[in-house]
Amino acid sequence: MNCKEFKKIMGDYVNHTLGENLAGSAEIHLSMCPKCASLVRELEGTAVVMRSLDRSDAPLGFEDRLKTRLAYGGTRKVGVMERLSALARAFFIPPSHRLSVRPAIAGLLICFLIAGSIFMLNQRQPASETDWAYIHACQDQHATFAGTNPLADESAVALRERVTDLGNEL
């Protein structure tokens, strides 16, 4: 028996659940391999500590969740809805109400996103001296441009309205 084969059965060896032939092969391997013998001693120490701990009941539904996770190989990605369902379980929401909790939580998240976006968009900064200097420079440039281009008058009106709006904010 080599180390790779022994590591596959090491747990059963420590728990004394191997057949006589396999246990004999494992003992022969352990007598020749100090690394595996060290691993067995560590595992036996861990087993002793685990057996000394008080036993407690698993949370409700734990066994079903464990079986499901093991059926998927335990490596599947957990989606947002499954995480929300786990939160519902954590707050002891009965299974019959969990389906109605998911859309409610999703709706709340969407409301927070919308409210935050509106709040951020409505944050106006008061015009600073630099802004006013820029506006006056644009007005001066526009005045010279409007003299040569008659279509520029519409943009002058829009600029004048914006200046008036900024003046009212102060």
Taking all Cα atoms into account, the compactness measure Rg is: 37 Å
Number of domains: 3
Average residue-wise pLDDT: 76
Main beta-sheet annotation: none
Shape: elongated
Proportion in β-strands = under 5%
- Number of distinct helices: 8
DSSP helix fraction: over 70%
Give, in order, the helices and strands: HHHHHHHH
How many strand units?
Answer: 0
> Structural class of the secondary structure composition?
mainly alpha
Low-confidence stretches: none
End-to-end Cα distance, whole Å, is 87 Å
Describe this protein with a few key phrases.
8 helices; 170 residues; 3 domains; mainly alpha
Task: Kindly describe this structure.
The protein has helices at 3-14, 20-32, 34-52, 62-71, 80-90, 95-121, 129-148, 153-169. It is an all-alpha fold. Helix 5 crosses helix 6 (95-121). The longest helix has 27 residues, at 95-121.
Write the layout of secondary structure elements.
Blueprint: H1 3-14, H2 20-32, H3 34-52, H4 62-71, H5 80-90, H6 95-121, H7 129-148, H8 153-169
Q: In a few lines, what is going on in this structure?
A:
Helix content is 76%, strand content 0%. It is built from eight helices and no strands. It is elongated.
